[in-house]
Write a structure and sequence with these properties.
This protein is α/β, with parallel strands linked by helices and 933 residues long. Residues 249-542, 271-490 form the Helicase ATP-binding domain.
Length: 933
């Protein structure tokens, strides 16, 4: 069968079960890999088309009033589908509508083989950023003029299918053979296509040079590792002259090169710290070009001394930027070779041995796992790194990935034939021989708190986004436990009848059922789950009771409660510890049972290494939960640790999360990092408060006698590019006028949007206020003049929301938490930044409470020592979203009058570049903004 009919429907709604109808049908016919025919027609739905469908498709009630009814076209449609595949982008939707209409008109439903281009795109293009039709076709350079119209969508889907088929036929034989084993679980009927591709492939040997094959897997040929030793004789001053000065190599890389004196100043400061064996705090304001400024001395020092330097970032976004943009620029700028490598934790890398093993075992696979396996098979023919962050897999596929990651293989046997193909081993080797290793704060801290066993040895380190180091270190030195995760882990092990790990093991090794009582195991699992429920329900009930007594515990969506022997009265604490001891008792019984199984299987010849590794991993995971329970409830608390509980106030699951963190990491960092390393450079755009590094020095445990501090000013002319507007007539939120404040904020947003034609980023400090503002704005916006996007309200990731914001001319983006930093919206896309409230941490947050208590006990002022500095640093991050280049121009509107009325307000305004500050009525400020623009 080589006829393919591609279909796309426009409908009055999402579900034929709700009596939604087809209003337009587009069909494209493919034969012999060529589009031979196109058909489309309007259909009369015999009902009104909703306005939002008309807005989306431009199909009006007038367009369909004289169109035929589906019944009149049904026979012709069925005729077109004879002896063909049915193809659609999301087959269940189109097939569901089509078959409902056919049955309603007295015909039989279609039973054609189907191909879903969403599913096939996910498998064959695992690195694509999105699988929506408009975005996957854009990714593959397939364009059309009339999206959301049936024929146009059907036509691009047809072209997409041809591209997918071409990609499928280019895959190596081993990959196709493995996909064929998985095919019965796909939504698409690919068996015939896979057979054809394998038949063609078995006669062609062109792929042999491109792929390595081993044990039934095909993967991309890995690059050869060579290392050249370079001897640098150039002095550092000459090196920088050659790059930064007139006619230097940097100028040659850019058409419009703007020399930034601060950039060279920062490079010199980094190198001075390296040479003198000192640490450095460098605040580099927006526009400095700090990444390049620290990379240049790092490369010089690493190559000159033949010693690697680590560069750590907080976000994967900056890691990607360094690797994809900054490192290639440095390669073009310096005249000697060097190598940079990315290194992440073991859990990021695929284990080929574990994956090959799982491919032969389909017993535990559901659809998502099957799809994940298919995606990984194709990705293996493309990736050099084996880093899962390169691709998108189904959400539940990440649980499967844990089974096939390098973390699951424990220690790879160097005598194993798989050793030479290990992605993690290659990443480690690449890092070992690299001059620069790029990693993240999480792995840096994990390495530091585990005797430096994860990263290759180093003496010098650069920490970018350094204002996050304290929180990351505290998180990785602490622990987290919750009842949802505990239940999930036990469910993944399963009872004897579940299609999970335990069932798989007893099914594979008959001797287990002869020697062990599976009923005993099932009883143990059931009892352990019951004990988890009892403990966490008790904790939930206790905190709910406390909440009624103490309203400060209340938080929108989540309650937070500090707990310890001192916080909870003695009789309640005794009950809790008894329940914890009982739960640990059952956990130990589970471990004992599995350990005996492992010992028993060890005596059999057919005990597979991968099964043993998974069994040991399960035992270790259970032991981790015991360790966490003991630390949280049974051991004496560390003096400088805070323990707290969080629980959702909404949702059917009584999710309870337990946390423990140190209240200060200054001693830890001082002893484990700064005392042990020759030179640590900490840089960020926000490290000072009122031009002082005092706060960050104390929080991180840096000692002044071994410390260089430097502020690098922005090259931008902020006083000409920014106006800071502060209204003096906003309601005072202090007196409970929350609704009035939200109304005033929403009115100001719309008034300013008129001036700036949208292009506004509004930063909130609470999701609740954001949601209420979004709802109110929707009510008072009388037309669809502005595209309103709300984080947590509008679906999509931060990156997706930002792209949507930039795609529409008149957009207003409401953001919180993650939008305060790391979001780069240069140029005319952003003209107005509104800060709704100064970003103080909630005073009732358990970590803040505990830190405040410690400061009070030491005779210090928690507000001045902790709350204010944190708020100023976050405020500076938010302020930095507006001006990203020398040509940007805009206004910052701060609704919170405390910035001018409170004594501490100057700390905020003195911590940002000097800009004109206007404090007036809202109406007057809007008029002044209009005049300024």
């Amino acid at each position: 069968m080589n006829k393919f009919v591609v279909i796309d429907l426009e409908t009055t709604g999402h579900s034929p079960d709700n009596d939604d109808k087809i209003i337009e049908i587009g069909m494209v016919i493919i034969k012999n890999d060529e589009i031979i025919d196109k058909r489309d027609t309007f259909l009369n739905p015999n009902k009104q088309i909703p306005p939002f469908i008309t807005n989306l498709t431009n199909i009006t009630n007038d367009d369909v009033k004289d169109a035929p009814y589906f019944n009149e076209k049904a026979d012709k449609i069925m005729e077109l589908f004879e002896d063909s595949y049915l193809i659609a982008h999301n087959v269940p939707f189109d097939m569901g509508f089509l078959n409902t209409e056919l049955v309603n008109s007295g015909r039989k439903p279609l039973r054609n083989p189907v191909i879903d281009t969403v599913e096939l795109s996910r498998i064959l293009y695992p690195k694509a950023p999105s699988y929506k039709l408009s975005q996957i076709t854009d990714y593959l350079d397939i364009y059309h003029d009339d999206p959301h119209r049936a024929l146009s969508d059907a036509y691009v889907t047809a072209r997409l299918f041809l591209k997918l088929k071409e990609k499928l036929f280019s895959l190596p034989y081993e990959t196709l053979a493995n996909l064929a084993k998985l095919e019965p679980m796909f939504k698409s009927n690919l068996a015939v296509l896979l057979d054809e591709a394998m038949e063609q492939n078995s006669f062609e040997f062109a792929n042999e040079a491109k792929f390595t094959t081993y044990n039934g897997l095909a993967f991309k040929m890995t690059e050869k590792m060579t290392q050249e030793e370079t001897i640098l004789t150039t002095s550092f001053g000459d090196y920088l002259d050659h790059i930064y000065e007139d006619n230097g190599t940097l100028e040659k890389q850019f058409e419009k090169y703007e020399k930034r004196s601060g950039q060279r100043e920062m490079s010199e400061t980094v190198y001075d710290a390296f040479c003198s064996g000192e640490h450095a705090l460098i605040e580099a304001e927006t526009g400095t070009g700090k990444s390049l400024a620290y990379l240049l001395p790092a490369v010089y020092e690493a190559v000159k001394q033949n010693k690697r330097i680590i560069i750590s970032t907080h976000t994967t976004q900056l890691q990607t930027q360094l690797l994809d943009e900054e490192i290639p620029l440095v390669h073009k700028t310096v005249d000697f070779p060097f190598e940079a490598a990315l290194l992440k934790g073991r859990n990021h890398y695929l284990s080929l041995e574990r994956f090959a093993y799982e491919l032969t075992h389909l017993e535990r696979d559901n659809y998502d796992i099957t799809l994940t396996k298919a995606i990984l098979l194709v990705w293996l023919t493309e990736t050099l790194t084996g880093d899962i962050d390169e691709i998108q897999i189904p959400t539940s596929g990440y649980t499967f990935f844990q089974r096939v990651s390098a973390d699951a293989e424990r220690k790879l046997d160097v005598t194993s034939p798989w050793f030479r193909y290990s992605f993690y081993t290659r990443a480690r080797r690449r890092a070992q021989r690299a001059d620069l290793i790029i990693t993240n704060h999480a792995l840096l801290c994990t390495d530091m708190f585990n005797d430096y066993q994860f990263l290759p040895a180093y003496d010098k380190l650069i920490i970018d986004e350094a204002h996050h180091l304290e929180d990351t270190a505290a998180y990785h030195y602490g622990l987290k436990l919750d009842n949802i995760t505990m239940h999930y882990m036990l469910n993944q092990i399963g009872r004897s009848e579940d299609t999970k790990f335990f069932n798989y093991i007893i099914g594979k090794y008959d001797s287990i059922e002869d020697n062990f009582s599976v009923d005993k195991w099932d009883e143990l699992i059931a009892n352990t789950k019951n004990e988890i429920d009892d403990l966490f329900q008790y904790l939930h009930a206790y905190v709910t009771k406390q909440r009624k007594k103490d309203k400060s515990l209340s938080d929108v969506g989540r309650i937070q409660f500090r707990f310890s022997k001192e916080e909870v009265n003695s009789s309640n604490w005794e009950t809790i510890t008894e329940m914890v001891n009982r739960l640990i008792f059952y956990y130990r019984d589970l471990i004992h049972f599995l350990s005996l199984m492992d010992k028993s299987l060890d005596d059999t010849e057919d005990y597979v290494k991968n099964d043993r590794q998974e069994l040991i991993q399960v035992i270790e995971n259970l032991q981790d939960h015991i360790d966490h329970l003991e630390l949280l409830f049974l051991m004496d608390q560390h003096i400088n640790h805070v323990q707290w509980l969080e629980m959702d106030t909404k949702g059917y699951q009584q999710a309870v999360y337990l946390y423990s963190e140190p209240t200060t990491v200054s001693t830890l960092l001082g002893e484990e990092l700064f005392a042990k390393k020759d030179s640590v450079i900490l840089t960020s755009a926000t490290l000072t408060m009122k031009n002082s590094f005092h706060f960050i020095e104390k929080r991180l445990g840096l000692r002044e006698e071994r410390l260089i501090t430097k502020q690098i000013r922005s090259p931008f002319s902020f006083k000409d590019q920014v106006q800071l507007l502060i209204p003096n007539d906003f309601p005072d939120i202090k007196y409970g006028n929350m609704d009035d404040y939200i109304y005033a904020t929403s009115e100001a947003i719309l008034s300013l949007a008129e001036v700036t034609e949208g292009r506004m980023l509004v930063l909130f400090t609470s999701y609740d206020m954001l949601r209420k503002s979004y709802k109110l704005l929707k009510e008072i916006m009388t037309d669809d003049k502005y595209m309103l996007i709300g984080q947590g309200v509008t679906s999509g990731s931060r990156t997706r929301l930002k792209k949507n914001f930039q795609s529409f001319e008149r957009s207003i983006l409401l953001g919180t938490s993650s939008f305060w930093e790391g979001v780069d919206i240069p140029g005319g896309d952003l003209s107005c930044l509104m800060i709704v409230r100064l970003p103080f941490q909630p005073p009732a947050h358990p970590v803040y409470e505990a830190k405040s208590q410690e400061l009070k006990e030491a005779g210090k002022n928690p507000f001045m020592e902790l709350s204010l500095p944190n708020a100023v640093i976050k405020f500076k991050q938010g302020f930095g979203r507006l001006i990203r280049s020398s040509s940007d121009r805009g206004i910052v509107f701060i609704c919170d009058s405390r910035i001018v009325t409170a004594r501490y307000g100057r700390y905020f305004t003195d911590s940002i570049p000097e800009v004109p500050i206007l404090n007036d009525s809202t109406q007057s400020l809007i008029e002044q903004a209009r005049a300024w623009f």
